[in-house]
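Hi everyone, sorry if this is the wrong subforum. Our group has a chain we'd like a structural model of before ordering constructs, and none of us has done structure prediction before. Sequence below.
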Amino acid sequence: MFGVDFAQHMVDYAKQTCKDEGVADKCEFVLGDVLTYDFGGKTFDYSCALGVFDYIEEAQALVNRMASLSNNSFMASWPENGLRMALRRYRYTCPLFHYTEQQIKQLHYNAGIKPENLEIIRIGGGWATVAKK
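Answer:
Right subforum, don't worry. Here is the predicted structure as tokens:
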């Protein structure tokens, strides 16, 4: 497993969790921005972005990046607007982004994902998607 996060505390948390679970030797985590990180031509069987699109203004760029890095499929979570999002905006005092199902479909379509290769699953507070290449 290879993970990229722009928050040092999340990189540290991931490393500690993998150590606690006895899988640290199979995992690598780095501080960086997945949109600009140099993967050196490396690709991955799968990629995921859970709790990321809430904070990413360039959603299309991230979907495109995930599509280019993933050999088989990629998954993501997507927040919807509503009371939960309003409370988070108030609490965190940072920009938060939300999506409609139609926006999610369009972002994937723009990245070259055919509608029949996109699974959208309703979850509490939004959606989860699995995009197959």
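For your construct planning: The chain has a mean pLDDT of 93. Helices lie at 8-20, 59-69, 83-92, 101-110.
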